[in-house]
Amino acid sequence: MGMSAGGGSGNVKADINVTPLVDVVLVLLIIFMVVTPMLQRGKDVHLPKAQQPKKEEQKGVKEDPLILSVTPDKKMYLDKDGFDADSLEKELKHQFELSPGRKILLKGDETLSFVDVRTAMNIARKAGAKGVALGVEEVKDK
C-alpha cells in the first residue's frame, strides 16, 4: 500500500517547531517598543540628576499627580498641552476644583535656571497647589 496511517514503526516525532514561538516573541517586542514611549507623561525634558532623591511616601490610594513640565525654551506644559502663565494658572485652578489636594510633579529641564523653575512653582501656588514635587533623575553609585 502506498499510504500509512502513522502507526507502522512506532517512532514518535518529537521535534519542537520554534517558528511560531519566534513569531509571537517578535510581535510582543514590537508592541512593547510602540507602547513604551507612550507611557511617559508630560513633555520630554532632561531632568537634573540627584545622588539620593527623597522618595515620596504613598499613603493610601491617591490619584496621579498633575505633570507640569518646563522645557529648555521656557515653555510650560500641563501633561502634553502647552500653556502661557495666565492660561496655566486658570487650568490649574480648574483641575484643583475638580479634585482638591491633587499633587503637582514639576519636571524642569536641567538647563533651566532656578528662576525659571521658581516661576512655574509660583504659578502653581497661586492656583492653589498645596505642594509641588520636583522631578529628578536618580544617579546610581557604581
Number of strands: 7
Strand order within the widest beta sheet? 4-3-2-5-6
Specify the CATH architecture of the domain at 49-138.
2-Layer Sandwich
Strand content: 15-25%
List the secondary-structure elements in sequence, H or E.
HEEEEHEHEE
How many helices does DSSP assign?
3
Structural class label: alpha/beta
**Mean of residue pLDDT values:** 80
Low-confidence stretches: none
Q: What is the CATH class name of the domain at 49-138?
A: Alpha Beta
- Helix content bin: 25-40%
Description:
This protein has a domain at 49-138: Nucleotidyltransferase, domain 5. It starts with 18 loop residues before the first helix and ends with a strand. Helix 2 (85-98) packs across helix 3. The strands form 2 sheets. It has a 5-stranded mixed beta sheet with strand order 4-3-2-5-6. It is built from 3 helices and 7 strands. With 142 residues, it is α/β, with parallel strands linked by helices. A hairpin with a 5-residue loop joins strand 2 and strand 3 (76-78).
